[in-house]
């Protein structure tokens, strides 16, 4: 059996290569706005994965893109690579800017927003993209469970501190990257910080459910302001988000084959973010949930307005917006 494994992997690889080629040949890139010239976009976690792909595409559409990243050196390297990819076709309309932003530190979030408000005259799109996935139990600088702290609370504070600029730049858009895994999460107000019990999979799902509830509540609060808010799931994407997931050594070749065949590339996964950030098709659309550039239905627990409002109120206190 062990001797046959390489042949099985090779044979499977040829089959899925053919399948993936056929899928790619038949796939059409979804519609999007032709130009983002004159628009400023902030993308969190833009140095890799979905965020990097979205930054490159929006720069190609002539946007001024601010990359909010925790590791400045890695972000600068990614920015140089993106400029090399896109720069030859750019006609001077786009710009890429790197700014340090650690969503695991409320101090860093406030410093980032302070600089944006000092330097930027407008903000047309905010893409809350950065995230951490199924990490071991650890806490943020401010003592929050890491997944809830980064995926929800960090973005909650970031968005609230930038709301004034977004309103002044209306029509403007907020795009919240969630996940289909929200379906397995629950908002437990008795243990939001996972101090009683911690399950890394459940806590990730809870943070993604919190993203959707936040987006819906924010959309309700922003009615009539010209600022729209929508959430999305990107699908299963080949990124470094799963770096905390342990895969047995012997299973890695098969996993790599399956992920290459069936997972989306970062560019494919970023299409819905790009669509919501730029397409005229969703002008004025707010409070919705999208996948593959189409509106999708949510489970009832993700549409619970009472839970959404309570989560908002508690989050305001947790991040220090209210005492």
Topology overview:
Layout: H1 5-26, E1 40-44, H2 49-60, E2 64-69, H3 72-86, E3 95-100, H4 106-119, E4 125-128, H5 146-168, E5 172-177, H6 200-221, E6 227-233, H7 252-262, H8 266-269, H9 271-278, E7 289-291, E8 294-295, H10 305-318
Parallel strand pairs: 1-2, 1-4, 2-3, 4-5, 5-6, 6-7
Antiparallel strand pairs: 7-8
Q: What is the radius of gyration?
A: 20 Å
Distance from N terminus to C terminus (CA atoms, Å) equals 64 Å
Low-confidence stretches: 1-10, 13-28, 241-245, 254-262
The gross shape turns out to be: globular
* Beta-strand fraction estimate: 5-15%
Global structural class? alpha/beta
Instruction: Supply the number of helical segments.
Output: 10
Average of pLDDT:
87
The biggest beta sheet is recorded as: 8 strands, mixed
Quaternary structure classification: single chain
Proportion of residues in helical segments: 40-55%
What is the strand arrangement across the widest sheet? 3-2-1-4-5-6-7-8
The count of strands amounts to 8
SSE string: HEHEHEHEHEHEHHHEEH
């Amino acid at each position: 059996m062990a001797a046959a494994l390489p042949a099985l992997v090779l044979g499977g690889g040829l089959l899925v290569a053919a399948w993936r080629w056929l899928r790619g040949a038949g796939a059409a890139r979804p519609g999007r706005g032709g130009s983002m010239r004159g628009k400023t976009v902030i993308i969190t976690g833009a140095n890799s994965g979905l965020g990097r792909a979205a930054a490159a595409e929006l720069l190609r559409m002539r946007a001024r893109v601010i990359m909010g990243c925790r590791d400045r050196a890695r972000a600068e390297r990614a920015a140089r690579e993106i400029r090399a990819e896109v720069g030859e076709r750019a006609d001077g309309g786009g710009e890429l800017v790197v700014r340090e932003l650690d969503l695991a530190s409320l101090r860093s979030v406030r410093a980032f927003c302070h600089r944006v408000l000092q330097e930027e005259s407008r903000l047309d799109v905010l893409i809350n993209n950065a995230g951490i996935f199924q990490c071991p139990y650890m806490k943020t600088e401010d003592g929050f469970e890491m997944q809830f702290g980064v995926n929800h609370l960090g973005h909650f504070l970031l968005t609230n501190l930038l709301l004034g600029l977004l309103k002044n730049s209306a029509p403007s858009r907020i795009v919240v990257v969630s996940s289909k895994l929200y379906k397995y999460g629950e908002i437990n107000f008795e243990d939001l910080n996972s101090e009683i019990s911690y399950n890394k999979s459940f806590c990730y799902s809870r943070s993604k459910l919190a993203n959707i509830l936040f987006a819906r509540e924010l959309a309700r609060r922003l009615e009539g302001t010209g600022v729209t808010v929508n959430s999305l799931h990107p699908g299963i994407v080949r990124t470094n988000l799963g770096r905390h997931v342990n895969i047995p050594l012997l299973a890695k070749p098969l996993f790599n084959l399956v992920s290459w065949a069936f997972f989306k590339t970062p560019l494919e996964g970023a299409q819905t973010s790009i669509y919501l950030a730029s397409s005229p098709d969703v002008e004025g659309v707010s409070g919705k949930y999208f996948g593959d550039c189409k509106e999708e239905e949510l489970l009832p627990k993700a549409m619970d307005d009472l839970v959404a409002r309570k989560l908002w109120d508690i989050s305001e206190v947790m991040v220090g917006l209210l005492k």
